[in-house]
Amino acid sequence: MAKVPLVPLGSALDTFTDPQGAAKNAAVLREREDLLRARRAKIESGWGEKYAARVREKGKLTTRERLERLKDPGTPHREIGTFVNFERKFGELESPAAGVITAFALVHGRWCMVIANDNTVASGSWWPLSPEKIERAQQMALRLRLPVIYLVDCSGLYLPEQGKSFPGRTGAGHIFKQNSLLSAAGVPQIAGVFGDCIAGGGYMPIISDRVVMTEQAYMVIAGAALIKGAKSLHLSSLDIGGPEVHVHQSGCADVRVPDDATALEVIRAEVARLPSSACEFYRHEADPAAPLHAPRELAGFVPADHRHVYAAEQVLARLVDHSLFWEVLPQRGREMIVGVGRVNGLYVGFVANRQGLMEDPEHHGAKKPLGILYKEGIAKVAAFSRTCNDDGIPIVWLQDISGFDIGVEAERLGLLGYGSSLIYANSTNTVPMFTVLLRKASGAGYYALAGMPYEPVVQLSTPLTRLAVMEGRTLAIAAFNTKLDDEFQIATSDPAERAKIEAGMRATEARIEADMDPYKAAAQMDTDEIVALGELRDWMELFAETSYQASGYRRVKNPRIWSLHDLGALTEPRG
């Protein structure tokens, strides 16, 4: 029982794909991923080199330069919310990444959440969705108990759009509630103040455990211009709330440093004082290892066309260490794969949709489509989800789902009840859960498999993701159902009316197809980040390590007393 029965999974790419098909599939995906990289690069440039030069002329670093110096040399960072406000206009202006960078980064071997105002975009102002993006990052840190590092260089709200970012439940003021919740949970918060820190920007660092200020930094409720107008006083913002005031008089800051580089070294030193990562302990003597089959091969066999199928087992084989996996309850609910593998030596639970056709156990000789939730699969996933939660195993949900089974038999079998049980499990789990929308994420299936409304710690999309209730053509038929006959053909002999209905259906289908674009979802924060298929293993490593880094705040069972062993024992063949 102490040994988790991991077995080899997957096979070499050339054993299940023809080279020509794999090359064609990879070419389609390469085009989409090239677009992804180009769009990322444009966003990362902020408002461009002219604004970056202005920052450097003041003797400061740009925010992305600060991030590079903050994190451990040569280590990656994983940015989230890159596409928030993507292609959204505010008058003539855009706010790349909503003017704030949020990223997981390693500092002295500890994963931290970095939240940094982009000082090349309107002096780090908060735009519509900037507060929500900051709060989302704070929530991730709270769920995982990761230290939070704020790199503050913020001139407050972008005032022409204040009505969209100031008053609501998740408006700018909610950032400070999240500061308080992090503090109440004992999550370390460290703030570096590098420049403007006005109004809400001034409140943001104050609850932090450590506040470091550079000589160019100031924190004020109201800036010099406002005070001059209100009280006829001729002062600079540094006079009002610079380091001389807040380090030596008010006590609102702790350390005064000459420049950005020194501030970042002080912040790194503070992180070094924190407890180290618990990952090595929870590896149980296992060494981190790459998958036997390369993650980059995902582009060769996961089709861009959602109507084409692939083997979900081959995906898992390119995500887990040594391509070893323990599938739990393999003979029941065959439309779903549930099981456990190691990622960087750490145990992670996986839930994935099989694709294609399978034998219908209820009707001998019949087949039914996969990528759909049926009774047994729902029950299996619910039991697995609850058991992982009991055992303390983080769960990754790999979605490629068209929805729930429908029809007379589905209702007779009680899918509503079984689906509610699964939703209850995922709503009440406390173990870290992460969701990846590989391709289709449709209907209530998207909800049931821990989609964004069920608050996974992070939800990723790929360039292939299609997130919607239903496909554009299906929705067009539903919307114009009263105009169609039983064969879904337009039920009129009037040419003018027929043309009008056809145009309406085409317009509806086109609008829904546009709404399914992953960039639209990311722009409005319906998904956290868009990543290339070949990057998924890197994200799995982040998910695993951040789930196990902190210790003592949640139950993590030794593998020999997992409840998963009980599930396995009750369903394995006898004799």
Describe the structure.
It is a single chain. Helix 4 runs parallel beside helix 5, helix 14 (375-391) runs parallel beside helix 16 (415-428) and helix 18 crosses helix 19. It is globular and about 80 Å long. It has 3 domains: 1-44 and 289-465 and 527-569, Alpha-Beta Complex (2-enoyl-CoA Hydratase, Chain A, domain 1), CATH 3.90.226; 46-276, 2-enoyl-CoA Hydratase, Chain A, domain 1 (Alpha-Beta Complex), CATH 3.90.226; 470-523, no CATH class. Strand 17 (433-442), helix 17 (443-448) and strand 18 (458-461) form a beta-alpha-beta unit. The two termini are 18 Å apart. It is 38% helix and 18% strand. With 575 residues, it is of the alpha/beta class. Strands 1, 9, 10, 11, 15, 17, 18, 19 and 20 form a 9-stranded mixed beta sheet that branches. Strands 2-3-4-5-6-7-8 form a 7-stranded mixed beta sheet, with helices on both faces.
What's the SSE blueprint?
Layout lengths: L6 E2 L10 H26 L4 H9 L5 H8 L6 E4 L19 E8 L2 E8 L12 H15 L3 E7 L18 H12 L4 E9 L2 H4 L6 E5 L9 H8 L5 H5 L1 H6 L6 E3 L2 H13 L6 H4 L15 H4 L10 H6 L6 E4 L8 E8 L2 E8 L3 E3 L7 E3 L2 E2 L1 H17 L3 E7 L1 E2 L3 H5 L2 H14 L4 E10 H6 L9 E4 L4 E3 L3 H8 L15 H21 L2 H6 L5 E2 L5 H13 L14 H9 L4
Parallel strand pairs: 4-5, 5-6, 6-7, 7-8, 11-15, 14-16, 15-17, 17-18, 17-19, 18-20
Antiparallel strand pairs: 1-9, 2-3, 3-4, 9-10, 10-11, 12-13
Give the percentage of residues in beta strands. Answer: 15-25%
Note the gap between the termini: 18 Å
Shape summary: globular
Total domain units: 3
Chain oligomer state: single chain
For this structure, the CATH topology of the largest domain is: 2-enoyl-CoA Hydratase, Chain A, domain 1
Number of strands: 20
Measured on Cα atoms, how large is the radius of gyration?
26 Å
Structural class: alpha/beta
Low-confidence stretches: none
